[in-house]
Structures are given as C-alpha cells and as structure tokens.
Amino acid sequence: xxxxxxxxxxxxxxxxxxxxxxxxxxxxxxxxxxxxxxxxxxxxxxxxxxxxxxxxxxxxxxxxxxxxxxxxxxxxxxxxxxxxxxxxxxxxxxxxxxxxxxxxxxxxxxxxxxxxxxxxxxxxxxxxxxxxxxxxxx
Length: 138
What we know:
alpha+beta; about 35% strand; 3 helices
C-alpha cells in the first residue's frame, strides 16, 4: 500500500523533525489536524527538542503557536500549547508597569472553531481559567 504525501504530512515532517521518533509518532494524529491552520501561525515550535541543551525525554510532547488575533492589544501575548489531550492558553497581559499571566484550557474542537473563525477573540472558546499570576520583570 502506498502512502500519499499530502501537504499536511509534509508540514508535519518538516516542522516536527526535531522530536525523537517516539514523540514524533505521539503527536502525529493531533498535529495533522492543526496542519490546515499553519498559515495562521505567526510563531511555532514543538517540544521536547532532542538537540536542545535542556532536552528531557520525559517531557510531555507538545507544540506551541501564536496567531495574529486583532482583538488583542499589541502589548499582550497569547500562546497556545497543544498536547494530545487539550490546548493550554497562556495569556500574558502588560498593563502599565504591571505584568499578569492567566492560564486557560480549551478543547481541540474549540481551538479549531476559534482558528476557523478568526478574528473573534480566543477567550470566547476557553473552558475555564486555571491560574492568574502577577509578576514583575527582572
């Protein structure tokens, strides 16, 4: 049986080749579902990367991306961390001289719904806030 080399598979093999073989296979099914959105990603990385100095083969395989969400002020950042189970949303808020971080969860289905309909804000698709932290830059 011959495997078709689809654009999604090409994207996956190109962008996830820094993972070890076990992690590469672990993320394959979920990552291929995100491949159609890759043109929306303004920033992207997958982890754990086997060539990294802090490589930990026990780290849960995941990938991280950002998109251009026009509903967000430019000084804030939203990072989406995709695991096989769900999406974690890290929201970094810059308010005057204070910095805050909020964390939310989102299902894959809700994340796809969000990406399909951009530009409506990501927070319409989260399940719950799991943490809010204030921090000062050092």
